[in-house]
């Protein structure tokens, strides 16, 4: 190290310490005639090396693959490792959770009630025939599972997780009177909730309308904020809201 002393005022000095320019803080110098022509005395030479990374079946997101002692080398230091961290790329159709796969599928109301079948192209290109059992009714937001069609398990490549299919059901916007009669004849009878004429006379008729709950909640929040703001303006005695001090 080099030490420099500088006078900065009467009876005041400043002392600074910094690495030597010749040895770069190593405490060792090499004559020019003794320097290696390849590294020029730095004791380190640059070279390219190709590492082949093998991703095993079933490896998880953020799992690490380590190459011990393959990092940059330097004199008098322990060579580190090169670590590759896997990042899972999203698939447009399949979602992975550990060893299981999830896929979304939409059924029409007719398919949900009367049966369905469709072909699902798997990640490896195989065509899977998916169909319901005779007489089976699929309810909205229900799940079905297929064993051994999920992801391979890590270090157990012959074992696989499950493939889950999440079903959503599309309902028609409306039905004509003939369709309503046909459905009533085919489906189980309605619960016995018929009202008498006297009961109907005592009731007030209402009208249902469609509503978007997200918009309703947003509107109520804005209304509550406006009411709170108006209450602050109407405080007794002409008091004003306290403003935050500027720092």
UniProtKB/TrEMBL annotation:
Gene Ontology molecular function: any one: zinc ion binding
Zinc finger region(s), CR-type: 1-48
Biased composition regions of type Basic and acidic residues, renumbered to the chain: 206-222
Signal peptide feature range: none
Disordered: region residues: 206-247
PROSITE patterns recorded: ZF_CR (PS51188)
Example of a GO biological process term: protein folding
Domain CR-type: residue ranges: 1-48
Gene3D superfamilies with a match to the protein in the record: Urease metallochaperone UreE, N-terminal domain (2.60.260.20)
A Pfam family reported for this protein in Swiss-Prot or TrEMBL: DnaJ_C
Function: Plays a continuous role in plant development probably in the structural organization of compartments.
The protein's name: CR-type domain-containing protein
Annotated organism of origin: Lotus japonicus (Lotus corniculatus var. japonicus)
Source lineage: Eukaryota, Viridiplantae, Streptophyta, Embryophyta, Tracheophyta
């Amino acid at each position: 190290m080099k030490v420099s002393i500088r006078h900065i005022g009467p009876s005041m000095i400043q002392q600074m310490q910094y690495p030597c320019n010749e040895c770069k803080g190593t405490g060792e110098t090499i004559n020019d005639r003794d320097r290696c022509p390849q590294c020029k005395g730095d004791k380190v030479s640059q070279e390219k090396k190709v590492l082949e990374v093998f991703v095993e079946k079933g490896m998880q997101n953020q799992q690490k693959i380590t190459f011990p002692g393959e990092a940059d080398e330097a004199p008098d230091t322990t060579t580190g490792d090169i670590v590759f961290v896997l990042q899972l790329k999203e698939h447009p159709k399949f979602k992975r959770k550990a060893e299981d796969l999830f896929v979304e599928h939409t059924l029409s109301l007719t398919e949900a009630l009367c049966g369905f079948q469709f072909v699902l192209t798997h990640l490896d290109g195989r065509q899977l025939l998916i169909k319901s059992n005779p007489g089976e009714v699929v309810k909205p937001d229900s799940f079905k599972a297929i064993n051994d069609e999920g992801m391979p398990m890590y270090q157990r490549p012959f074992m696989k997780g499950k493939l889950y299919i999440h079903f959503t059901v599309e309902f028609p916007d409306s039905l004509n009177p003939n369709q309503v009669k046909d459905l009533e004849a085919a489906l189980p009878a309605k619960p016995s909730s018929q009202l008498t004429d006297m009961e109907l006379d005592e009731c007030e008729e209402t009208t249902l309308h469609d509503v978007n709950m997200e918009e309703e909640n947003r509107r109520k929040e804005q209304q509550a904020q406006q009411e709170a703001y108006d209450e602050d303006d109407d405080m007794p005695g002409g008091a004003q809201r306290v403003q935050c001090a500027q720092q």
